[in-house]
């Protein structure tokens, strides 16, 4: 009987080790982007940008700027030209640009402001970079 139990125990130990490994990888940020639960999930001091209007879908940007003039290029695999809503929970005004490296058409969002539907500003899926500014 003890010969039958050893393989079962070994399989259970292997399954537990695999689950622990997956949890460790997810904690390193190697998992898919977090699903947005709305703007309330954007912590104080952060700028958050979502794939869909209404602060829904994948949250592609979760950035804590360090002061006026802080810059953020939205990478191609991390929401570039996919942003549809923004919440600026930072203490700075924020200018969003249509091109990389802070060029092209732009919109400005004041401190604590939001844009739940960038399509209303004709800027849906256009954001490629962002920079904090002193005011709009």
Distance between the termini: 76 Å
Strand order, sheet with most strands: 2-1-4-7
**Total number of helical segments?**
1
User: What is the fourth-level CATH superfamily of the largest domain?
Assistant: Crystallins
Spatial shape: globular
**CATH topology value of the largest domain:** Gamma-B Crystallin, domain 1
Please give the domain count: 2
Helix/strand order: HEEEEEEEE
Largest sheet: 4 strands, antiparallel
Radius of gyration: 21 Å
Q: Give the rounded overall mean pLDDT.
A: 79
The CATH first-level class of the largest domain comes to Mainly Beta
- CATH architecture term of the largest domain: Sandwich
Tell me briefly what this model is.
The protein has 136 residues and is of the alpha+beta class. It contains 1 helix and 8 strands.
């Amino acid at each position: 009987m003890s010969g039958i139990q050893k393989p079962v125990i070994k399989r259970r130990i292997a399954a537990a080790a695999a689950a622990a490994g997956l949890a460790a990888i997810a904690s390193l940020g190697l998992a898919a982007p977090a699903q947005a639960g709305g703007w309330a999930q954007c912590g104080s001091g952060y700028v958050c940008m979502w794939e869909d209007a209404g602060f829904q879908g994948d949250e592609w940007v979760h950035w804590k700027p360090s002061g006026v003039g802080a810059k953020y290029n939205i990478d191609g695999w991390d929401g570039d030209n996919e942003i549809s809503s923004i919440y600026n929970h930072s203490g700075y005004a924020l200018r969003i640009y249509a091109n990389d490296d802070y060029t092209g058409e732009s919109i400005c969002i004041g401190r604590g402001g939001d844009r739940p539907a960038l399509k209303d500003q004709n800027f849906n899926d256009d954001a490629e970079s962002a920079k904090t500014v002193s005011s709009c």
